[in-house]
Amino acid sequence: MLDRISAFWAKVEMALAAWLAMAVSALILLNVVTRTAGAALFWVDELAVYAMVWMTFFAASAAIHHRQSVSVTLLQDLLPARGRARLSRAVDAVVFGFAVFMLWVCWRWYLPLDFARAGFDVSDFQSETFNFIYSEPTTTLGIPKAYVWSVMWLFAIGATLHSLANLFRAPAEGTLP
Predict the structure, then answer these.
(1) In whole angstroms, what is the distance from residue 101 CA to residue 160 CA?
(2) CB 65 within 8 A of CB 10
(3) DSSP annotation of 138
(4) Would you give the DSSP letter of residue 170?
(5) Quick one: 65 exposed, middle or buried, by C-beta within 10 A (0-12, 13-18, 19+)?
(6) pLDDT tens across the length of the chain (177 residues)
(7) Distance separating alpha carbons of residues 113 and 149, to the nearest angstrom
(8) 41 and 31 Cβ atoms separated by less than 8 Å
(9) Residue 117: CB partners within 8 Å, gap ≥ 6?
(10) What is the pTM for the complete model shown?
(11) Which of 4, 27, 35, 64 supports an S-S bond with 48, CB 3.0-4.6 Å?
């Protein structure tokens, strides 16, 4: 069941990453056209960067599901099959630990309970916590950066789901996650 949920979420992440890759290309093309015409839209640069960042985080999370993350296989290549399986499990555990740590960092960063206690009032939240995440605007788009950074939550949740599913799934023969 967990593996099916992980597989479904990985498909969603890859679809979103593909859509965002197309959006980056379209935004860059729009930027070239408007600059050539002498009517540059400066917010396009910022939006293209954010789209690329979101695309990267979605694809990185899906790569955890597929165990296709970049790895150095020098040690793995020297080990017998049983050692490779144990090393694969150890890597799965480390990735899971990192994903849970990312959830904790997002929790500490966004302070959702404190924000709720402040009645979702940004001014009250800021005065109580000295945390300005919900009011700091992006440079040209003018939206709160909390929306842009929310991809960290999505990445942390996806990475936790995928790495937990990998812990319960048999390691792929001869490969590290």
Answers:
(1) 9
(2) yes
(3) P
(4) P
(5) buried
(6) 999 999 999 999 999 999 999 999 999 999 999 999 999 898 999 999 999 999 999 999 999 999 888 778 778 888 888 888 898 899 999 999 999 999 999 999 999 999 999 999 999 999 999 999 999 999 999 999 999 999 999 999 999 999 999 999 876 654 554
(7) 18
(8) yes
(9) 128
(10) 0.88
(11) 27
> Helical H runs in the chain?
2-36, 42-66, 74-78, 81-110, 112-117, 122-129, 145-149, 151-168
Which region, left, alpha or beta, applies to residue 9 given φ > 0 means left and ψ of -120 to 50 means alpha? alpha
Residues constituting the chain? 177
What's the rounded Cα separation, in Å, for the pair 131 and 119? 15
- In sequence order, which residues have a C-beta less than 8 Å from that of residue 152 and are 6 or more positions away? 57, 102, 105, 106, 109
Helix orientation angle between 42-66 and 2-36, rounded to the nearest 10 degrees: 160
CA distance 57 to 10: 12
- Evaluate whether 160 touches 95 at the Cβ level (below 8 Å): no
Q: Which amino acid is at 76?
A: Q
Identify whether the C-beta of residue 64 lies closer than 8 Å to the C-beta of residue 167: no
